[in-house]
Design brief:
Elements (H helix, E strand, L loop, with lengths): L3 H10 L5 H17 L12 H7 L1 H27 L5 H16 L1 H10 L3 H27 L9 H9 L3 H15 L2 H7 L2 H28 L1
């Protein structure tokens, strides 16, 4: 006879459709992105130019966080195009990810007000890096438990998994810079992410080119 707990999981928890999970996740991403704009205020008694200058740090924090949440939403969307089933643990992992997505407006507000202080930079960098780690955990768990569509082979799984580590690499490396050198320098260091991603693209193209050359040589 089937254990009642196992039966409960099979009937109420496990599922072959992720539609509601995706809809709920999309809503959290959208709300978090919308809340970012709250920190952009127009103070009274100033000229338009003074407002723009005064709010430059807030504009930077808003643009950065909007981009980060947008990129995480795109990554989440792509994963759940091929994640076709779920269980309770995958749902919990996704909820933990969404918890920190919804939390992003707070370190963003802290960064816009206290961007020159190490504590604000460290918290922001930690949260941004953690989002990618949680994305990796969702992806890894879904793969290991057979929830990913068969069109995703091991090479594609590993390629997507690798891309989850570039953001934590850059943002978490900026934490000791903020603590022991300078908070502003740590923020500038975040732009290294663009160069890391460009470097990986160049590496991937070179590897494909070498592979094609090897095939051509073998065939000739």
């Amino acid at each position: 006879m089937e254990d009642v707990r196992a039966k409960y999981r099979r009937v109420f928890v496990d599922g072959s459709n992720t539609e509601r999970l995706v809809f709920f996740s999309d809503a959290i991403f959208a709300i978090a992105m919308t809340l970012l704009v709250i920190d952009l205020k127009v103070p009274q008694g100033s000229t338009a130019w003074e407002v723009l200058v005064d709010q430059s740090q807030a504009f930077f924090a808003y643009a950065l966080s909007f981009t980060i949440i947008a990129l995480n939403w795109m990554a989440h969307h792509r994963k759940f195009r091929v994640i076709k089933a779920h269980d309770g643990r995958l749902m919990m992992l996704d909820l933990v990810l969404l918890f920190f997505v919804a939390f992003v407006p707070f370190p963003t507000s802290l960064l816009s007000e206290y961007g020159a202080q190490p504590a604000a930079v460290v918290l922001y960098a930690f949260v941004v890096g953690l989002l990618s780690i949680l994305q990796y955990l969702v992806w890894s768990y879904a793969w290991r438990h057979g929830f990913v569509d068969k069109s995703v082979d091991l090479e594609l799984y590993r390629f997507n998994r690798r891309n989850q580590f570039t953001t934590p690499l850059v943002f978490w490396l900026s934490i000791p810079i903020a603590l022991f050198i300078d908070a502003q320098a740590a923020m500038y260091f975040w732009f290294a992410l663009f160069f890391v991603n460009i470097g990986l693209r160049i590496y991937d193209r070179a590897r494909v080119s070498r592979s094609r050359d090897s095939v051509s040589e073998a065939a000739s």
